[in-house]
Amino acid sequence: QVHVAESGGGLVQAGASLRLSCVASELTLATVGWHRQAPGKEREFVGDINWTGQRINYADSIKGRFTISRVVTKNTVYLQMNNLKPEDTAVYYCVLGNNIWGQGTQVTVSS
Length: 111
What we know:
Oligomer: single chain
Shape: globular
Order of helices and strands: EEEEEEEEEEE
Distance between the termini: 41 Å
Number of helices: 0
Helix content: under 10%
Radius of gyration: 13 Å
Structural class: mainly beta
């Protein structure tokens, strides 16, 4: 069964950038989404990208700061996060299709 794994999280200061990666175990043409869950809050949608990369959706809270891209031949989807804010602190998850979730990667932004 295909699975996905996130990486690239870390501890950064406000205003810094991070790039998260979501790597699938095999070639897939499914839509890939990014979600995040902050402590004490529900998981929220960040954005998603279809397999061609021509259809990308973003949550309003991160528009203009985050960019999603995809390299199909590498089975990889990226989440480039710029100008990070303390409120971006969360565990970030990618999801393949509707139901194949990774284990998450922690992003912590200090003020």
